[in-house]
């Protein structure tokens, strides 16, 4: 029971990685590693072990969640108005949407 109350040995690394991940300006995995103050390999291990995804997939998921949240919170908005700026184009967003939601953005909106 005592061990359950103890912080995880990677807690500081996990917190730094999470803080970097939720920064909307984060643009690349290399930048993710730099902001987390970890090597690329350490970031991969921390993300896989504690978040369950690769750093790249975590960033894709986070970018998608920002766009989805903006759409839901801004009633009457269009997808083109809320797509995260890190998407190259609407087609990329639509592919990501299908990957994460299993449907198109318009199907979700309906």
Sequence-ordered SSE layout with sheet pairings:
Blueprint: H1 2-5, H2 11-21, H3 29-36, H4 40-51, H5 55-73, H6 79-82, H7 90-101, H8 105-109
Helix pairs in contact: 2-3
Strand content: under 5%
Instruction: Tell me the number of helical segments per DSSP (H or I, 4 or more residues long).
Output: 8
SSE class: mainly alpha
Shape: elongated
Number of domains: 1
The largest pleated sheet is described as: none
How many distinct beta strands? 0
The percent of residues in helical segments reads 55-70%
The CATH class: Mainly Alpha
- CATH homologous superfamily descriptor: Homeodomain-like
What string, H for helix and E for strand, traces the elements in order? HHHHHHHH
In whole angstroms, the N-to-C terminal distance is 49 Å
Q: Examine the secondary-structure arrangement and name the CATH architecture.
A: Orthogonal Bundle
